[in-house]
Design brief:
With 162 residues, this protein is mainly alpha-helical. The chain has six helices and no strands. The chain has a domain of 110 residues. The longest helix has 31 residues.
């Protein structure tokens, strides 16, 4: 009986000690999100561009390589193209792009993502990219380039004002 009383006291003291160090659910969620972000930040893929402008330039270069028939394996190239398209909104969010232009870029990225299936078919069948698909992708890349240029101009303007 004496030992169960001692166990109860030890358990109560231990729980009281833990109570002072506990975090609220919100604090734990923020810490978990931060930890996940930091972990992903350290595992940055080598092909991930550092900013929006570089991403658009890289997509343009990669599209030129992907649209031509080739005997080489383009699976990696196509997967990296998809990754960069998927990262466009994130890279735009890291810039000082106004919301309206971010929305335009996000829509452009979604359109490019939808065109990925058609591009994948062209790449895997090693055939020439048809004029209609080529025109659609080039139009979206041009729109993204215009938005990225605006973001660069705006960022340069902000830095010169400081």
């Amino acid at each position: 009986m004496k030992s169960s009383w001692i166990k109860s006291v030890v358990l109560a003291v231990a729980m009281a000690g833990l109570g002072g160090c506990s975090q609220s659910g919100d604090e734990m969620a923020v810490d978990a999100a931060r930890s996940t972000y930091e972990q992903h930040d350290h595992e940055r893929p080598a092909h991930k561009p550092s900013n929006l402008s570089d991403a658009v330039d890289e997509l343009t270069r990669r599209f030129a390589r992907l649209r031509a028939p080739s005997a080489r394996d383009t699976t990696t190239e196509l997967n990296e193209w998809r990754d960069i398209v998927r990262w466009l909104p994130e890279l735009a969010a890291d810039s000082d792009l106004p919301k309206a232009q971010w929305d335009q870029l996000h829509a452009t990225a979604q359109d490019l993502a939808q065109l990925n299936e058609q591009l994948a078919a062209v790449v895997t069948e090693r055939r020439e990219c048809d004029a209609q698909l080529r025109a659609k992708i080039e139009a979206h890349l041009a729109a993204a380039a215009n938005i990225a240029r605006h973001a660069s101009i705006q960022l340069t303007s902000i830095k010169s004002q400081k």
